[in-house]
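new request in #modeling-help
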Amino acid sequence: MSAAAGASTANRSRVSRLKLTPFSTVLWLLLLAIVVLVVYPLGIAIVYEFENIVKSFGEITNGPLSRTVPTVLWNTAIVVFGATFFALLVGSILAWVNERSDASLGFIGQLLPLCALIVPPIAGVIGWAVLLDPRAGLLNFPLRQFLELFGITSRVGPFNIYTMTGLVLITGLYTVPYVFLVVSAALQRVDPAMEEASRTSRAGPLKTMMRVTLPAIKPAFAAAILLGFISGVSLFSVPAVLGGGARIDVISVFIFRLLQAYPAQTGPAITLSIGLLVMVQIMLLLQNLIAQPGRNAAISGKGFRHTPVRLGKLRWLAYALAVLYLFATSVLPILGLLLVSLQPFWTPAVNFATLTLANFNFVLFENRQTVSALINSLTLGFIVASFNMLVTGAIALHFNRNGVARRIADIFTALPATIPHTVIGVAFILAFSREPIRIYGTTTILLLAYIVMTISYAARASASAAASIGTELAEASRVSKASDLRTLWKISLPLAMPGLVAGWIMVFVHTVGEVTASAFLSGTHNPVIGRVLLDLWNFGNFPQVAALALIITAISTTLVGIMLFITRRGQRTATS
Amino acid sequence: MTSPRVSVRNLTKIYKTKRGSHVALDNVSLDIDAGEFVVLLGPSGCGKTTLLRCIAGLEEPDAGEIIIDGKLVFSSEKGVYVPPERRDLSMVFQSYALWPHLSVLDNVVYPLRNTGKSSADASVLAKEALAKVGLGDYSARFPGQLSGGQQQRVALARAIVSGDGLILFDEPLSNLDAKVRERLRLELLSLQSQINFSAVYVTHDQIEALALADRIAVMDVGRIAQVGSPEQIYDYPNSRYVADFIGSANEFAGTVKSVGDVLTVETAIGELEVGNFHSDLVAGQPVWLVVRPEHCSFDGVGEGYNRFSGTLVRTLYLGASRQHFVETAAGELVVTTQTPIAVGEKEPVTIGCAPQRIHAFPREV
């Protein structure tokens, strides 16, 4: 009796694929390793530092840190709120223009959400710093000369990027894509019949937008705000570059400086990290509550065709806004970087006769630090992208989409995305700089950190690549007498390939442009681009910074171009 | 005695969802003979696709047995589950499920290569199969370059190429236009008489079922309500559910007055004589009377016909026929005629129908 029951459960699992085959065993072990990589460092760091954590509560409430920490928190709040507000405004206007008006942005609309990939934020913020430095800013200088024509003379300004405003605006620029994506997706799913019903009920386009469209996508706004908060709180590169000059510390940079101080203040660092982690978790919880499917009943299927709202002359304003945004995130900073990188030393009065490629030559071939940083970053990017796409691709294609195994795997791979990079950096430092695993200062620690930090991107890319195939194609292969693995190899993998390659490129670009964990975990023995850029910036080697930033921008732009090419071609074969 | 090609025994399949469990198949048994075309017919959610997928091996039932060509492919008791690739059958999907990255020829070659045929042999057989479905010239194309009807023909070629002689169809014509659907229906039948495969065919379209089937299994939430030839199902439904689902039916409530050669039933429109009833009906039992609109008439009232009167409410002209809505004491009744009638709207009419065209089913009160 019990034997029969046992046999029948064994059978059921064969279809839902919880039964371990050699292939799935390897996948589960890898997943387990990734979970360990998330949980272990944080857990062990808390255990090691427990006394320091307890002690740091006193330091923060009425000790030496009681004056700085509130300021840091206040600054963080201003930056995050300001940047999110800016991004919400710009991002949703652009999304509405692209989805609903006759000023459809076409190719620019496709590029918008990719801005932060095309130009890594670290390159973008350095680009803006060289443009709007109060003294040597490449934009400030001609502006001052222009103002002199009117008798207004000044040695600084008129703009200063090293201010709270600068910090907010630049952070906002890199938050826009999140809002744009979320709001666009929501707009795509609103049934146009709802808007058409409003129009035939004698409401104009504006009233329809205010009374029907916007209320329908309210949950998307909430989700966009929370995403903006989460990304703003964890963003490191912008405050690391601008905060120094502005003497404004936000939490991510403050934690970094606590660890860089001598002696390292590990207790407060990990306490604040845990606080950061808790805050992000609370926000994610809120976001899940808001995004619950039952709550936005107005939104149904997707792929509707909308009659565009005619903007008339306003269309040009809409185009202008989109182009301005592209200029602000990409074109202007790249031009700034280019001018500085070609100069022997950074000066706002560009002397075209002295321009030289020497900085590129130095960064690419002579400076041992930058050369090994480039080699390390590219190698790490390659390994991390390949590993993560292999694991998540195999999971997405092998495990049945609605199966238990897949759901567990999804939870595991989504977990790291909920942990700010600053926290990963702190936890890795504290956990891996002593026995039994002493790998601080090696490339291994960077490899592990990067794998953890990008596995969620990879999983999302793999899942959407697998979802685009549909289950019936695999089933048709099974009834055509192909085994599980043969189906994976002959049908699912080739069909998912464009999506997987796009995911690979995304992970690679993220890894090469990564700054946060790189700042924490990289040093002279294991230099990577993110860390070396910050160091060169802080030491004032501006032309070299610019050259190096341009090089990684070029790599990113090229790869994202390839990605766009592949995904567009993929769409064509899928729709035909 | 020849054994059936497919034998489904006491199959049960339960889906567990967040809101509890849902019985998709409840102790279902069915045999499909060699060369037989069996249609599983029912509304969505009745379990017909689940049954098909269980036969294919794409779903694993919770209890029961499936035997294909004498080989046990599933048995909950013996712990047997043979995966789809080791069952000798093929399948045609609603979405065609052609692999977009393979050419038409490669799509058809694929099942042969999986069974170890050489590339040259497979190619010859695949071309033959493509010729049979009228796509001999299309082997170099890609699925994306074909129309829906052509794509489904390729899928059909892929299904017949391995020569297993058992093909499962999952609503294969639902995605096609009416015209293409009708033509493919004919082609499917001539293909079947050519190569004599057994077919299990899932559809919710009763016309398709009547046209294609040797036998129809009408399904009702997880169980088979009736199995029989199309004529049996249409003319002699064994339950109110089947009568209702196939074709359209007028229904009225009544009470059995006496049981004899015919059943006499007391209704709001008077006493009716009923020719089709189950022998276990007894006097005094509440029943539903069911009669099809085309079995009622206004003029052709013969000897022994039931007659009752009503008022014509409206006539709809449907091209090939006319649909008349008549208000009677037992509620609204539909009568279909091929020819126009001489009665205008709001005028009184007399309806007649033969006792053997009326069915009685027990009614729960």
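bot summary: The CA atoms of residues 110 and 559 of chain A lie 15 Å apart.
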